[in-house]
Amino acid sequence: MEKNKLATREQLKIYFEKNKYPTQSQFAELIDALKHREDIPTNKEAVILANSLASIDNAYLAYHGYNFGKEKILLTVNSQDEGEQLIDVSKTNNYQEQRKYFFGTAPYSVKIKKFQLDELAETEYYYFNYQINPNSNSSFTVERIIGNNLQVLPEGFDLGTFNDKIILTFSKIDFGQKINIINTNIKFINNTNVNIMYRAHATYWGSLFSNGDSVTNHYNLWDNLYFFYKADLKEINQHIECKVYNVDNNQLIMTGYLYAGENNENGWGGDVAMGIRNIRIECNYQNQD
């Protein structure tokens, strides 16, 4: 008589390959051995899983959410060798970091899939910010205020491309007054043969790097613009100056420097442009204006 002993994995394969099935008792024991999605892991299993997760070196999204209600935020992530991955960042514990790891390998691109907001009081808004590649010299933060009279981030909004991890924070803030968008037109002129990119930043607002003309949509309560540049000059023996002008009166506002022999990843623009609606940035090799 065949003993009711749980067969090994290889024995089970042979059973099915040769149309010889496990006994009823063996099959019941096999089912009991399988994990169900609703099963609560034992402490030992949880420790094994935690140790396994600690060894994962994939890039990931770390996010925090504060004062959350019925908000719904979905993101899509695409890597160079995997299909689209959908990530829900709606469920958070206040002040506790949540992590979602990415499939595939870098670079990764992240976009908004869905941005559904809860009800807001008259002067309440959502503050949305994310930091790209926080562990590198090229790290920078993009910020937005949304909700009420300010536009929600639309489907397809590009959060950028990154190689490491991305840190996202989403919170509800009462600013005590209405906030409106103001625009500054930026004309970018690069008179060098080097690929130079710039980004504009203001309080609660920031853009991605660009090498073309752009228009800001920052906020009237903080009408101040800072500029940052990046350019790889490791093989270049000339410094580069990027000067910011007020187009309306041709006044020089600030000068930023990109240094020869270096990979300039987040170069400081030099000063702040306050209350200016039309700006021109001109980049030239030093002493060759």
Structure description:
The structure is a single chain. The protein is mainly β. 11% of the residues lie in helices and 42% in strands. It has 3 domains: 45 residues, no CATH class; 117 residues, no CATH class; 105 residues, no CATH class. A hairpin with a 7-residue loop joins strand 6 and strand 7. The longest helix is centred in the first third of the chain and has 12 residues. It is elongated and about 90 Å long. The mean pLDDT is 85.
Low-confidence stretches: none
Helix-strand sequence: HHHEEEEEEEEEEEEEEEEEEEEE
What's the oligomerization state?
A: single chain
- H/I helix tally: 3
Distance between the termini: 97 Å
Strand residue percentage:
35-45%
Q: Count structural domains.
A: 3
Structural class: mainly beta
Average predicted confidence as pLDDT: 85
Strand order of the largest sheet: 4-1-9-6-7
**Share of helix, binned:** 10-25%
Please describe the topology of this protein:
Elements lengths: L8 H9 L6 H10 L9 H12 L5 E7 L5 E7 L6 E4 L9 E4 L6 E9 L7 E9 L7 E7 L11 E5 L3 E9 L6 E2 L2 E6 L6 E6 L2 E2 L7 E2 L2 E2 L4 E9 L7 E7 L4 E8 L4 E6 L4 E2 L3 E8 L4
Parallel strand pairs: 1-9, 11-21
Antiparallel strand pairs: 1-4, 2-3, 2-5, 5-8, 6-7, 6-9, 10-15, 11-14, 12-13, 12-16, 16-19, 16-20, 17-18, 17-21
